[in-house]
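Its record is quoted verbatim for completeness.
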Amino acid sequence: MLAIKFRRQGKKHQASFRLIVTEKRSKLGGRFIDDLGWLDPKSKKFEVKKEKAERWLKVGARPTPSVHNFLVRAGISRAAKIPVHKRPKKTEEVAVPAETVKQETAPVAEAAAAAPPRRCES
């Protein structure tokens, strides 16, 4: 399956992106099928080859959500933007009252104090 993706380029903290068509499962640093344009998010400049992008969309290449929103902003796609959010981390902490924790540790401490010390016999 073909996908339209952003490919990161540039130096550290000076990212720029190429808009490429590639296989869905291929690595971004590897080979790609076609180059559709570029994006510089710092200066907010971009260039998209509209005819190529429309052709690949008609052929069946599916854009990633970020690319889809970029194509909507560029005026190539007329669909609504897709909300792109990072998934929140799951934090499932069970709230245990402090009293139950103290009660559980108290018998262990008492048992350790009551037991006679062990001696190693050789």
User: Anything to note?
Assistant: The chain has three helices and five strands. The first helix runs from residue 50 to 59. The mean pLDDT is 83.
